[in-house]
Design brief:
2 domains, Alpha-Beta Plaits, coiled coil, Type 4a pilus biogenesis protein PilO, 4 strands, four-stranded antiparallel beta sheet, 5 helices, alpha+beta, about 220 residues, Transl_elong_EF1B/ribsomal_bS6
Length: about 220
């Protein structure tokens, strides 16, 4: 009887050992690979999320830069006439230089001829063509379309300045306007002051041109 019980115990222990070994083999061969794959997948997911965050940051930065570029371009070359902005700028220049704009007139030219003005000339503030390059049909079509959208406004000013230095300050103010503006012509007469020849009043006729893109076309 005692031997039978001992054999039973040994059999139970053997079965338990075998079950433990089977569980260990199952864990090593099945569970561990799954856990490794899960950990690897989790790392891949974290990497993807980091890449997405980086891309979103880059896209946000690019969008902000593009918006800033568009804003700056709009200030230099607006998409409408925006004459009020021009008048405000001229008023500030008038005040800063202690000058007086006595008369002002506007002439709007609806289109620019391609052989008279190119986009690069406008950006450089000059109408002198110094270089010609061959472009493809598509590029040329884009340039022609841009030129059709590009409009100019000619402004004729009669200005009186207390002195030549203040006249120069007025002229420099026009040249330094944020909106692209070029001085076309300047004619002036100096009214001498016999008592103080160094303090001569300057009467000036100034023709300037500013530009805008007609976004409605």
């Amino acid at each position: 009887m005692t031997n039978f019980i001992e054999e039973k115990k040994k059999l139970v222990i053997l079965i338990l050992v075998i079950m433990f070994l089977l569980i260990g083999l199952f864990y090593v061969n099945k569970v561990m690979p799954i856990k490794k794959e899960a950990a690897h997948a989790r790392r891949d997911l974290e990497t993807i999320e980091e890449d997405i965050d980086i891309l979103e940051t880059q896209m946000k930065t690019e969008d902000e830069e593009q918006a800033d570029n568009d804003f700056q371009l709009e200030r230099k070359m607006p998409t409408s006439r925006k004459l009020d902005d021009v008048l405000l700028s001229l008023k500030k220049i008038e005040t800063d230089s202690s000058s007086q704009i006595t008369t002002m007139s506007f002439i709007e030219n609806s289109e620019l001829l391609e052989n008279e003005l190119s986009l690069s000339d406008v950006e450089n503030g000059t109408t002198n063509v110094t270089e010609t390059t061959d472009v493809g049909n598509e590029s040329q079509a884009n340039i022609q379309n841009s030129l059709q959208q590009l409009k100019l406004i000619t402004i004729n000013l009669s200005v009186t300045s207390p002195s030549f230095g203040q006249f120069q300050q007025f002229l420099q103010g026009i040249e330094q306007m944020e909106r692209i503006t070029k001085v076309d012509n300047v004619t002036f007469t100096t009214n001498s002051n016999e008592n103080n020849p160094k303090n001569q009043q300057i009467s000036t006729n100034i023709q300037i041109t500013t530009f805008y893109f007609d976004s409605s076309q």
